[in-house]
Amino acid sequence: MQVTVVVPTFNEGPNVRELVRRIGDAADGLDVEVLFVDDSRDDTPDVIRQVAGSSGMPVRLLQRPEPVGGLSGAVVEGLRAARGEWVVVMDGDLQHPPEMVPVLLETAASTGADVVVASRYVGGGDAGGLDGRWRHLVSTASSLLARSMFPLRLRNVTDPMTGFFAVRTGSIDLAALRPRGFKILLEILARNKVVVVEEPFVFGERFAGQSKATFANGLRYLQQLTALRFGRMSTFALVGAFGAVLNLAIMWGLEQFGVHYMPAAVVSAAVTIVTNFLLLEHFVFHDLRSEGRSVWKRAAQSFTFNGIEAAVRLPFLHWLVVLTGMPPVLAQALTLVVAFLLRFVFHAQVVYRPRKDAPDRVTPLAGEPSTTTLDED
Ligand code: GDD
Ligand code: MN
């Protein structure tokens, strides 16, 4: 089996020699080439050429004239130029241990998967190398959101944000990818029907240099999610909006019959909560109802969330206004947005959470090349 290790680099000169040495040691006995896809503005290409000259395994350099699509664009160009039947994508700063390369490939061979994801969040995995609480929080929150938007495609994936994975090039449609920002794995998994398994790994410290992640990358990620799928989340939002209108209509109707506004509010809230649940069952999560829990359990979880949310939102609003001094309407808008996202994530991750595929269900899809549809199944 021929393997290409694709390494995107942006100013990683001091890491190149050590990286190639460790890949060489780890992949001893395998038919491996290393392909650097470089957008550097310093002497990194020279270092790569030097190291290539003295390395025992083939080391290639693809220098891009323009950094189109950033890190993700570089990875896709690497996938296109790779000679290997399998490609392992990894960072050039040694935060991804090269010793995992043969492990990922063995897992691929033993499970028959198309993609093996090196995950920081499964088994013995660890995200220790992420610097700072803030990065940890952002990473966890973005994974949760992605998994809520693609519950089926990502059912076996705990770490869709990782930049370390092995992929069988024949199983994906490269032309369908729209690379942007940092999250190429998500793009691959969302747009292709592939069998995925995970392997834990410990995300280490950078060997040399600095991270290139920026706030702009974070925004690009949200853009990417939006472009990939608004399907489930937008119907979820529609159901919510319908519920609000229904709530007002019932309250107004009851008042016409002379009902006091307090009991009217209680009745309309109760009717709305039940209607919302039924609409979610039929229009938003219909494909996930068979994933285990009974309808009563789902209803209980959904109602509990709504109850707690209603009880917490007002004190939270008060606290926000008093603490930050922001205008109450702005604070209210903020709490509503946060409540919406939390409600969506809770329903996708708890109420309708898909079961992981049992190991015996993880079998290759019969020779069929991948599709590019965004329907989840
Ligand atoms: N060719 C190219 N072009 N490479 C790039 C670019 C670019 O525009 N931007 C970054 N890279 C390279 C870096 O040189 C490095 O080899 C790799 O991409 C990862 O960049 P880092 O700057 O080390 O990113 P990080 O450590 O903050 O992010 C890592 O963690 C993320 C998960 O939290 C990366 O592994 C990401 O891939 C991963 O998603
Ligand atoms: Mn890094």
Automatic annotation (TrEMBL):
Keywords annotated in UniProt: Glycosyltransferase, Membrane, Transferase, Transmembrane, Transmembrane helix
InterPro entries for this protein: DPM1-like (IPR039528), Glyco_trans_2-like (IPR001173), GtrA_DPMS_TM (IPR007267), Nucleotide-diphossugar_trans (IPR029044)
A matching Pfam family: Glycos_transf_2
GtrA/DPMS transmembrane domain ranges (all copies): 235-351
Signal sequence range: none
Protein family (similarity comment): Belongs to the glycosyltransferase 2 family.
Gene3D superfamilies on file: Spore Coat Polysaccharide Biosynthesis Protein SpsA, Chain A
Subcellular location, record wording: Membrane
Protein name per its UniProtKB record: Glycosyltransferase family 2 protein
Chief location bin: membrane
Chain ranges of the Glycosyltransferase 2-like domain: 4-169
Membrane topology: Multi-pass membrane protein
Residue spans crossing the bilayer: 235-254, 260-280, 329-346
